[in-house]
């Protein structure tokens, strides 16, 4: 009986609660949590059945327009799991947590990152936008504080004064970004998910995540574009 097989147990509920409190979880953490939940609630555990375990949870989340989605960190290629609100995939769901001017700063930061060559925006460029906000101009100090909160809340990641979209943001807002930045947003040619930090073929314009580039060209003596077969113009990371 399929209905019986997809029964939600306390193990599933505990997994969901912990994931909700984290917002996003790295693959190895999720696997550990899966095991722990099954052991605590004495439920059948199989180490290679995490995705089945999650799809059971997802079938029960469906009426609530929620879903646990799997995505990839653009930095190191590791899998991550995040709980996504499907009813409001737009920035609207951030509206309950931030003021209008904070949201405007986030949107402008997103513009800079997505329209950039490498998927990053410098703190200088972002802070220069703070006093051009239509909602309410921000002082630089205030804007720095807001950026810090976006990093803590896992919407942005920061490295040496350079900001990019956090893995959680990419998983949650993939549809929003693809429909609002149709001319520039591209999917990775290898894993077919949204690529913000990517290398691009100069001949045919396809893009690939850096971890996907690394994996794809590992076995090739001469790096050639998987689409047009031209020589790959970028350094292999």
From TrEMBL:
Question: Which PROSITE patterns does this chain map to?
Answer: ZF_RING_2 (PS50089)
Q: What does this protein do?
A: RING-type zinc finger-containing E3 ubiquitin ligase that assembles with melanoma antigen protein (MAGE) to catalyze the direct transfer of ubiquitin from E2 ubiquitin-conjugating enzyme to a specific substrate. Involved in maintenance of genome integrity, DNA damage response and DNA repair.
Q: Which reaction does it catalyse?
A: S-ubiquitinyl-[E2 ubiquitin-conjugating enzyme]-L-cysteine + [acceptor protein]-L-lysine = [E2 ubiquitin-conjugating enzyme]-L-cysteine + N(6)-ubiquitinyl-[acceptor protein]-L-lysine
- UniProt entry keywords in alphabetical sequence: Chromosome, DNA damage, DNA recombination, DNA repair, Metal-binding, Nucleus, Telomere, Transferase, Ubl conjugation pathway, Zinc, Zinc-finger
The subcellular localization recorded is: Chromosome, Telomere; Nucleus
EC assignment: 2.3.2.27
A Pfam family hit: zf-RING-like
InterPro entries annotated for this entry? Nse1, Nse1_RING_C4HC3-type, WH-like_DNA-bd_sf, Znf_RING, Znf_RING/FYVE/PHD
- Would you identify the family this protein belongs to, as annotated? Belongs to the NSE1 family.
Under the cellular component aspect of Gene Ontology, which terms does the record hold? Answer: chromosome, telomeric region; nucleus; Smc5-Smc6 complex
Biological source species: Mesembrinibis cayennensis
Q: Which residues form a coiled coil?
A: none
Predominant location category: nucleus
Q: Quaternary structure per UniProt?
A: Component of the Smc5-Smc6 complex.
The UniProt GO MF terms for this protein read: ubiquitin protein ligase activity; zinc ion binding
Name used for this protein in its record? Non-structural maintenance of chromosomes element 1 homolog
- Domain RING-type span(s) in chain numbering: 188-229
Q: What is the lineage of its organism?
A: Eukaryota, Metazoa, Chordata, Craniata, Vertebrata
What class does this enzyme belong to in the EC scheme? Answer: transferase
> By its UniProt entry, which CDD domains does this protein fall under?
RING-CH-C4HC3_NSE1 (cd16493)
Q: Name one GO biological process term.
A: double-strand break repair via homologous recombination
Superkingdom is Eukaryota
């Amino acid at each position: 009986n399929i209905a019986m097989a997809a029964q939600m147990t306390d193990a599933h509920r505990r997994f969901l609660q912990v994931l909700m409190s984290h917002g996003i979880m790295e693959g190895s953490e999720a696997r550990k949590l899966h095991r722990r939940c099954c052991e605590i609630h004495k439920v059948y555990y199989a180490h290679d059945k995490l995705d089945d375990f999650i799809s059971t949870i997802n079938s029960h989340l469906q009426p609530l327009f929620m879903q646990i989605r799997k995505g990839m960190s653009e930095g190191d290629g590791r899998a991550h799991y995040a709980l996504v609100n499907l009813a409001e995939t737009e920035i609207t769901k951030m509206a309950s947590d931030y003021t209008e001017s904070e949201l405007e700063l986030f949107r402008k930061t997103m513009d800079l990152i997505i329209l950039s060559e490498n998927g990053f925006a410098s703190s200088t460029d972002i802070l220069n936008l703070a006093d051009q906000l239509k909602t309410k101009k921000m002082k630089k100090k205030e804007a720095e504080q807001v950026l810090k909160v976006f990093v803590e809340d896992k919407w942005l990641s920061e490295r040496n004064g350079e900001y990019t979209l956090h893995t959680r943001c990419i998983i949650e807002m993939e549809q929003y970004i693809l429909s609002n930045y149709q001319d520039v947003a591209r999917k990775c040619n290898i894993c077919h998910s949204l690529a913000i930090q990517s290398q691009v073929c100069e001949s045919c314009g396809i893009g690939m995540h850096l971890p996907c580039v690394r994996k794809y060209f590992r076995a090739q003596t001469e790096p050639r574009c998987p689409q047009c077969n031209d020589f790959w113009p970028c350094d292999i990371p």
